[in-house]
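Q&A log
Question type: sequence-to-structure
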Amino acid sequence: MSAARASQHLDLVTRSIDFACTISRNSSLDLVSLVAETTSRVARDTIKWLARERISENAFLNCMRLGQDLATPNVNGLQILNSLADSASMLSGLNLIMPGALGRTIQYDARLRWICTTEAVILKYQSPTYATEMLCDIFVATDLEENDPRIPAAKARIRPVITKLVDSIQLHTVNMRHGIPSLPESIEALPKHNLADTTLSGAIRTIMDLKDDNLLVQMDGCVIELVEWIFHHWVGDLVVTI
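Response status: OK
Response body:
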């Protein structure tokens, strides 16, 4: 092994150890706090990635704070996260992603990783542009009520960050060894219907607000993106009647 390659390999190992140590020292990686305080190599790597993508730290922090704690992957969603982590390790080992890339680091943030699982299930049926607009709608709804005239401006501010985040996560989803697991056969067999991104984001946001209550969703047809999201995020029994 040449000296240059040995140095690159050692640097990769060092970064991986630092990343693992940061996670082990904290029960959950708080990416927003790390970047705000620049307290670790993970934070510095993320800041470098943001600079490369021409995203300011303030824009990133303001956007990500809107998305914290909105949802949590359930047991099914955690299976997706495990597959994404395997994908991240493979891509990192091949030097196909930069250290600090959001698609990797956000997987380990318990307050934000729902974004990874949400995008992963949406990309089974829709485009990255659809996922971007849907996430923008969910994020701005944290601060603004429906039909607030400030919504277009708020979405314009966060869209560059969400777009880069979606692109980074997508790199991991398309390289998952086994893809997203299929839904139960009884659901897969149903005729599938789709929603506009704004309608889907509204439905998901409503469910997010009811996360500690019982949930009854009535549909005229199997809205597959919504059913898939519920299957991977709702904690409780999922009963489908036809």
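Response note: The chain has twelve helices and two strands.
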